[in-house]
Amino acid sequence: SELNKNYKLKALVTAGPTNEYIDPVRFITNKSSGKQGYALAKAFAKKGFQTTLISGPTNLEVGNNINLIKVETADEMFKAAQNNLPTDVAIFSAAVADFKVKEISNSKIKKQEKLNLELEKNIDILNYVSKHNSLRPKLVIGFAAETNNIEENAKKKLDEKNCDWIIANDVSNKAIGFDSSFNEVSIYYRDKNMDDERLTIKSKSEISDEIVDRVIKRLN
Ligand code: PMT
């Protein structure tokens, strides 16, 4: 059966936001709910993949047969990814904070008129993995959350981050993207023989099934 054919295949998915602490009670985060990534993990597990889901903080229930690794910061997400790669396929749907606080205060910062925070760049997990000799999965898929010039920006990320595919979504549209149960995506392929594809608005679960179908086709 198809399940038996896939059961040896391993998938890794990143999902959700990351929290970057300022002090013990405050952090910088972003708008991801984790819905898209959890739906992808569910879709992989349903098709028999050994599935690892590395998730930032979310309120979501995880599906059956998924190895859930909960993390909070980008650094923790990065370590978890290193510990669980390579796989056959990895999809990076997490909205990782691009910056972390350079010096995290050990105690709660007192109220004051002004507070300057120095931020430094977080590691780009997708970029690191896709350019790593031994950790890189056969198939590396990134997401691109864009608000404008979607195709151009997504193709730039495809190239610069050495992805095989990039899945772009428009996060300026409230009906889709962050926190919605729906999405609409464009898939761009590195392989010039493959035409770009558009999956029009449907549930994140249906979008995930269609992505996983394409992954299976590509891996078999
Ligand atoms: O979680 P939901 O509410 O369901 O919303 C889903 C989503 C909109 C968050 C999701 O579909 C999505 O687009 N995820 C990627 C969000 C993002 O941060 O995109 P980006 O364009 O900044 O990053 C590009 C790619 O690099 C992504 O695959 C991202 O996971 C990866 N990245 C980025 C920064 C970083 N430090 N490490 C990374 O791995």
TrEMBL record:
Residues binding CTP, per UniProt: D98, K108, F143, K157, K161
The record's free-text note on cofactor binding: Binds 1 FMN per subunit.
One Gene Ontology term, aspect cellular component: phosphopantothenoylcysteine decarboxylase complex
Region (Phosphopantothenate--cysteine ligase): 11-220
EC number: 4.1.1.36, 6.3.2.5
Pathway noted in the entry: Cofactor biosynthesis; coenzyme A biosynthesis; CoA from (R)-pantothenate: step 3/5; Cofactor biosynthesis; coenzyme A biosynthesis; CoA from (R)-pantothenate: step 2/5
Catalysed reactions, as listed in the record: (R)-4'-phosphopantothenate + L-cysteine + CTP = N-[(R)-4-phosphopantothenoyl]-L-cysteine + CMP + diphosphate + H(+); N-[(R)-4-phosphopantothenoyl]-L-cysteine + H(+) = (R)-4'-phosphopantetheine + CO2
GO BP of this protein: coenzyme A biosynthetic process; pantothenate catabolic process
Alphabetically ordered keywords of this record: Decarboxylase, Flavoprotein, FMN, Ligase, Lyase, Magnesium, Metal-binding, Multifunctional enzyme
Gene Ontology MF term list: FMN binding; metal ion binding; phosphopantothenate--cysteine ligase activity; phosphopantothenoylcysteine decarboxylase activity
Role played: Catalyzes two sequential steps in the biosynthesis of coenzyme A. In the first step cysteine is conjugated to 4'-phosphopantothenate to form 4-phosphopantothenoylcysteine. In the second step the latter compound is decarboxylated to form 4'-phosphopantotheine.
Similarity comment: In the C-terminal section; belongs to the PPC synthetase family.
The protein, known as: Coenzyme A biosynthesis bifunctional protein CoaBC
Name of encoding gene: dfp
Shown residues in whole-protein numbering: 182 to 401 of 401
